[in-house]
């Protein structure tokens, strides 16, 4: 399975509530009808806990996750009439957008989906120094996985590696080029548990001292399952 993930900013002039409502009620309704789509999560940024001092290519207001069997299935979906409707709606609520194809590496099986929102932490990372994408994807499971598997506060943890950047969206919005190599997602019982872990010595070490990855942003996520 792969995720087609859009990392995007909010359209200028829209309030946070207008952005949220449109993404859920309009765009979400359109996107869930795309063919070959197995699951669709919307990750709404509830709070930014950290962002690098180095300027990002664009702001981050939301991150989508659309699950397909593989890149071929994703590409077949992208030429469908349903996807055309989705693409036409993008300028109505999104600003700049970076498209990433992610391969999920499950470390702790996440909780089962349900209709309510779930509390989750995202942190976005770039390569630490000149380490290649291939090296990160091959070596991280061997060198770092066990550290994350031992965290008792996690109700789920997935390390998502970027495996493809060659699917930009031509939708009349700026095309972003955020140099993300991995998106880490960890589920918690509640926001208090999440923030306590982030501020702990272990949390700070795992988020900010990974030998292969350099964190550029840490976000409290309101995860909404569309399908």
Explain briefly what this protein structure is:
By secondary structure, this protein is of the alpha+beta class. Helices cover 29% and strands 36% of the residues.
Low-confidence stretches: none
Shape: globular
Mean pLDDT over the residues: 95
- Largest sheet report: 8 strands, antiparallel, barrel
Overall SS class: alpha+beta
Radius of gyration: 17 Å
Distance between the termini: 15 Å
Strand order of the largest sheet: 1-3-2-8-5-7-6-4
Helical amount: 25-40%
| Pattern of helices and strands | EHEEHHEEHHEEHHE
What share of the residues does DSSP label as strand, in percent? Answer: 35-45%
Tally of DSSP β-strands: 8
DSSP summary: helix tally: 7
Characterise the protein shown here.
The chain is α+β, with helices and mostly antiparallel strands and 227 residues long. It is 29% helix and 36% strand. The protein is built from 7 helices and 8 strands. An 8-stranded antiparallel barrel has the order 1-3-2-8-5-7-6-4. Helix 1 (16-31) runs antiparallel to helix 3 (81-89). It is globular. The chain starts with a strand and ends with a strand.
């Amino acid at each position: 399975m792969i995720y087609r993930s859009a990392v995007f900013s909010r359209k200028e002039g829209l309030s946070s509530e207008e952005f949220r409502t449109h993404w859920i009620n309009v765009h979400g309704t359109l996107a869930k009808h795309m063919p070959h789509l197995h699951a669709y999560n919307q990750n709404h940024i509830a709070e930014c806990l950290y962002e690098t001092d180095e300027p990002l290519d664009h702001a981050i207001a939301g991150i989508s996750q659309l699950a397909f069997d593989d890149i071929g299935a994703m590409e077949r979906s992208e030429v469908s009439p349903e996807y055309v409707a989705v693409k036409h709606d993008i300028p109505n609520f999104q600003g700049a957008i970076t498209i990433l194809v992610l391969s999920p590496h499950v470390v702790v099986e996440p909780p089962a989906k349900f209709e309510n929102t779930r509390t989750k932490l995202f942190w976005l990372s770039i390569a630490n120094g000149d380490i290649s994408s291939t090296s990160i994807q091959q070596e991280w499971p061997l060198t770092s996985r066990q550290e994350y598997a031992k965290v008792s506060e996690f109700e789920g943890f997935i390390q998502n590696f970027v495996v493809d950047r060659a699917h930009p969206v031509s939708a009349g919005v700026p095309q972003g080029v955020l140099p993300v190599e991995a998106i880490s997602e960890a589920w918690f019982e509640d926001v208090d548990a999440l923030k306590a872990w982030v501020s702990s010595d272990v949390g700070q070490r795992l988020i900010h001292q990974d030998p292969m990855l350099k964190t550029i942003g840490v976000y409290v996520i309101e995860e909404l399952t569309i399908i």
